[in-house]
Write a structure and sequence with these properties.
Blueprint: H1 4-20, H2 26-55, H3 68-84, E1 87-92, E2 103-106, H4 112-121, E3 126-130, H5 140-146, E4 150-151, H6 157-172, E5 177-180, H7 201-206, E6 210-216, H8 221-224, E7 230-240, H9 242-246, H10 250-265
Helix pairs in contact: 1-2, 3-4
Length: about 270
């Protein structure tokens, strides 16, 4: 993805040299100069394009539909960002993802987790349950709003219930699938934190399949980027059918998800 910018620089540089009739050794030096300038202009143009799209969004207005155009822009931009960070993502088990809407749960290790999930699973139209602070991030909050991300205040049970119900409505009304991190926060030591059973109410109340996923090595990106390659694995480790979700309690689903995540990550499971 990121190679599109140097490619633009090289193409426009070649055209400029041809139009100006530059010959001899000047081709090399002028070619490098023009290529860099055009590449920089392409980057600035793309950033300006992202800003224009963001300023068109009114986050004060309730979002009642999933914006597929903004979703594609997000996917493309995140793949560029991950490539710029020298990240290589391997997706395992994608064939397990069911058709139709679902609820996705995942372990949480770093800020790159949702970036990886949106970049490589965003085509399934995912909205995220997120902490309220993320919805205050300039520019980013506009894009999150357009793909139906929902803030959840875990310190306020009444507001948390409203957020869970809103996520359920998104799934039930075929607006989008929803993703949540049931640990509630990042596990900075790399271990699996306990899963909050209440997170699984989105699945039980919406009657949707539960897609259990893990990401590994995302906590190393900030140390490695951009000079050292980081290999990340996004594993769709298990899918719980809607029928089984309906017949299970949230505590049972949390236990099942934790077992599957621990097995995927190769860490001990402890009740």
């Amino acid at each position: 993805m990121i190679l599109i910018f140097p490619a633009i620089g090289i193409i426009f540089s070649a055209v400029t040299i041809w139009l100006r009739g530059i010959t001899g050794t000047d081709i090399i030096f002028d070619g490098i100069f023009y290529a860099f300038d055009y590449m920089l202009l392409a980057v600035l143009f793309y950033v300006a394009f992202l800003l224009v799209l963001a300023f068109k969004v009114n986050i004060a207005k309730p979002n009642e539909k999933f914006d597929r155009f903004y979703n594609k822009v997000i996917i493309y931009t995140l793949k560029i960002a991950l490539e710029a960070c020298n990240v290589k993502v391997t997706v395992k088990g994608e064939e397990k993802i069911p058709s139709g809407r679902f609820v996705l749960v995942q372990n949480h290790r770093a800020m790159f987790d949702p970036m990886v999930s949106l970049a490589f699973l965003g085509k399934y139209e995912l909205g995220f349950i997120t902490k309220p602070e993320n919805m205050n991030l300039p520019i980013i909050n506009k894009y999150m709003h357009r793909i139906c991300c929902i803030p959840i205040d875990r310190e306020n049970p009444r507001n948390a219930v409203k957020s869970i119900n809103a996520a359920c409505e998104n799934v039930k009304n075929d607006i989008c699938s929803m993703a949540i991190y049931p640990e509630g926060t990042r596990a900075r030591d790399g271990e699996m934190l306990p899963l909050h059973a209440g997170s699984f109410k989105i699945a039980t109340k919406s009657g949707a399949p539960l897609v259990i996923t893990t990401v590994s090595n995302t906590n190393r990106v900030h140390k490695n980027a951009p000079f050292k390659r980081t290999h990340i694995t996004l594993d769709i480790c298990e899918v719980v059918p809607a029928e089984e979700v309906a017949a299970s309690s949230t505590a049972e689903l949390a236990e099942k998800a934790r077992k599957a995540m621990c097995a995927s990550l190769g860490v001990p499971y402890e009740e």
